[in-house]
User: What shape does this take?
Amino acid sequence: MFDWLPTDNLILNLVILLVGFVALIKGADIFVDGSADVARKFKVPGVIIGLTIVAMGTSAPELAVSVSAGLSGSNQIAVSNVVGSNIFNLIVVLGVCALLKPLPVDTRIKKRDFPISLIATVALVFMSALYIIFGPRPDMSDTMATAGIISRIGGIILMIGFVAYMLYTIKYAKNNKTEEDDSANTSSLLKDIVFIVLGAAMIVAGGDGVVSSAKNLAMMWGMSETLVGLTIVAIGTSLPELVTSIVASVKGENGMAIGNVVGSNIFNLLLILGVSSTIRPIPVTVASFFDLSTLLGVSIVAFIFVCTGKKITRIEGGIMVLMYIAYTTYAILR
Assistant: This one.
């Protein structure tokens, strides 16, 4: 959307960056309000709304960036964007929410959705290591050497997995209606839908503005494409998840907050990389293989925190944020 931005105009890029942040925050606010009201009207658990509508809405920037990168052949950004975004979601979004207020974890997330995210991550690590496992073995000291490939067949399998997951989630929502009191919910369904659509549009536009301007600023400072994908683009496209989850948590919609993170990660892994690799097979570099392995390690740590109690505590949230600082430092130094 903001491809027209001049890459060397510092003031204009800074203005777009600021306006994008404002659109993100306000868009997330009305998006959460509309989504929560719809959940109450149809007696659907908030966590299901977080796993579906909210997750897909906040992952729209990742989809746009990765598909665009796939079409233009910049597959390093497509992979590193998804990997960086998922790492950010798991240890920054959940970590910051837990730091603000201990974050209750829905049992369904523990038993079903988080394990699905882990399985999808394992599958992608395997695809990214095909050449390491079966040959020709790359030089592991060369971070730009190809370690594996996400083929078109692999992409189609990922998309089929996403469709199956969504169908199961929708079926679960139909069979598990809530009994919440609707007396306080006086807004019309049309108004709620307008809020959802307008909020999503503001989130997408704001996210795109932030990513485009931040990427231009980063390039002005001499950052590489892979590093931009892992940091600036990944953080920028994950801002909707961060802002939306924080807003949801503050408003008491805890199921929506954590459902948004886990649902977004599943969306990123299965649909976004599935679509991108179906458009054009994605060679995975040794550097990206290490990043995917890091994502798997981070996912295991986050899963342990999720499963060890009924809440993610402030201490665990702080550990998560420190893990991200350490990872980002390593990525920059590398």
About this structure: The first strand starts at residue 103 and ends at 104.
